[in-house]
Amino acid sequence: MSVSPALTDLSRLYQTEFVRSARAVGVLWAICTLCFAIIQVVVLVQPSWIGTTDTRHPGAPSGTLGLFEVCVESDWPVPDCRGGLSSLSPLPSFQSVAVLVGVSLWAVWTSVLCLCLFRFCSAATVYKICAWLQLTAGFCMALACLLFPDSWESPEMRALCGDSVGSFSPGNCSVHWAYILAILGVLDAAILATLAFVLANRQDALLPPDTKDVTTGLLMSA
Known about the structure:
alpha+beta, Butyryl-CoA Dehydrogenase, subunit A, domain 3, 5-stranded antiparallel β-sheet, 5 strands, 8% strand, elongated, transmembrane helix
């Protein structure tokens, strides 16, 4: 069985373009994965999950609160903060939330380290491993975002946001950018994991069906 030179050139063109597009999307996915990992670190360490609003009662404290730290504005330019990540001890009311965020952080940074496996394993295998790790990260972060409002009825929240604080009721406070960033991180993890699965499937079937037929014909004629 012979294959014309035109079909041979066409198969090579399809293969080249297909590989280039897959590599370009893969590089973009890797960059977004690294950005997602950095976002996870910011979400964990920043004391800006919730904070006071401008409508608080006169004389009430003004400040922000995170998983490890409570910061209250003072007469000094720098706020007066209690706690911190250096002690590795989250606020008692947010321990479960901090553990979930920590597991999410571990999963996403493990997926970043798995990028080194491209030199030793097949690309499809690496994409699938990273996809499952990113799904785990997104799931843990989603649980953390759900548990955080349920933990608002705590002494730290009452001291900052007033006695009207309750589960899913922030009192005189409102959610701040770190909590919103955590919610966006859940969506980011879902998108990255979906893209990783798509890239893995493309690696399993790298060439279009027509091109595979031409390649088969070339092998039979050799």
